[in-house]
């Protein structure tokens, strides 16, 4: 039997409203990959559209967890980071990369900090440049269009985009350090939406798009990135893994829209898990 791969997922956890660890853990586990978790904060709900949520910061626990894992000589095939709530957390997680990274460990960073042309209100304007430093240590980064512009210190541009603009963004992002880029929110018209990929080693760019579904749905970035991680851990190449993530996310959004689920509650990804297993050809 092949050795089961293991991912360390470093995210916050919201008790309700599917995002972060409540998405990463079930999705990555469904791909046959062990998902060890480092919770950076605990919230009663996510912060998008809910009021009165509880919040407990767990910054002080991140380093001790990493040290304990290091003492156990645990091997991680990937380290996957998402929303980090402060400069301090970025600094600590950067050190965790150094502690837990082996020669074959893939570092995947989702710089979750902005969307729709705006930095999340909890962050100061200097935050993207600190996130840029963390992404420089990653092998794969998964920014959306807003996050890409902010890390590059450029003005955000609303779509539709040209291929020349997207390809320029991809190469400037790779100049930061990561060898592979998955840029989300890419669209060239109003009919399709998806992601663009860039592999620095092969200098290859590709576009993985799907039919657009109107509306804004919370948690889709975490769903997408978690599927991407699971697919990469199943030895799918970057483009195949991205296409699987695009298809799964769109299917989950379509199910959510059809069910008329409150968009604050996150997307109905659970019902699409069988299709993910099939796409990965898991036995």
TrEMBL record:
Its EC number is 2.7.1.35. One of its GO terms (molecular function) is ATP binding. Keywords: ATP-binding, Kinase, Nucleotide-binding, Transferase. It is an enzyme of class 2 (transferase). The keyword Transcription regulation does not apply. Residues 28-256 form the Pyridoxamine kinase/Phosphomethylpyrimidine kinase domain. One of its GO terms (biological process) is pyridoxal 5'-phosphate salvage. One of its GO terms (cellular component) is cytosol. Gene3D superfamilies: 3.40.1190.20. Pfam families: Phos_pyr_kin (PF08543). The keyword Transferase applies. InterPro entries: PM/HMP-P_kinase-1 (IPR013749), PyrdxlKinase (IPR004625), Ribokinase-like (IPR029056). PANTHER family: PYRIDOXAL KINASE. NCBIfam families: PRK07105.1. This is pyridoxal kinase. The lineage of its organism: Bacteria, Bacillati, Bacillota, Negativicutes, Selenomonadales.
């Amino acid at each position: 039997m092949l050795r089961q791969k293991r991912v360390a997922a470093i995210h916050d956890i919201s008790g309700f409203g599917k995002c972060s660890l409540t998405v990463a853990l079930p999705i990555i586990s469904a791909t046959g990959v062990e998902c060890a978790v480092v919770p950076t904060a605990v919230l009663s709900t996510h912060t998008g559209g809910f009021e009165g949520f509880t919040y407990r910061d767990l910054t002080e626990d991140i380093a001790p967890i990493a040290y304990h894992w290091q003492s156990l000589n645990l091997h991680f095939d990937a380290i996957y980071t998402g929303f980090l709530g402060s400069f301090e957390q970025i600094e600590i997680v950067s050190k965790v990369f150094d502690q837990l990274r082996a020669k074959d460990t893939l570092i995947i960073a989702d710089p979750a900090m902005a969307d729709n042309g705006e930095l999340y209100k909890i962050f100061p304007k200097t935050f993207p440049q600190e996130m840029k430093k963390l992404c420089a240590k990653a092998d794969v980064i998964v920014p959306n269009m807003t996050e890409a512009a902010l890390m590059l210190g450029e003005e955000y541009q609303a779509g539709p985009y040209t291929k020349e603009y997207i390809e320029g963004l991809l190469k400037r992002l790779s100049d930061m350090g990561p060898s592979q880029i998955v840029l989300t929110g890419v669209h060239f018209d109003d009919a399709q939406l998806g992601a663009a990929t860039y592999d620095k080693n092969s200098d290859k760019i590709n576009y993985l798009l799907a039919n657009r579904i109107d509306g804004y749905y919370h948690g889709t970035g975490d769903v997408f990135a978690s599927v991407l991680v699971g697919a990469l851990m199943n030895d799918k190449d970057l483009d195949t893994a991205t296409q699987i993530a695009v298809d799964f996310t769109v299917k989950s959004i379509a199910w959510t829209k059809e069910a008329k689920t409150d968009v604050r509650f996150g997307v109905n990804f659970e019902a699409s898990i069988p299709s993910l297993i099939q796409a990965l050809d898991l036995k």
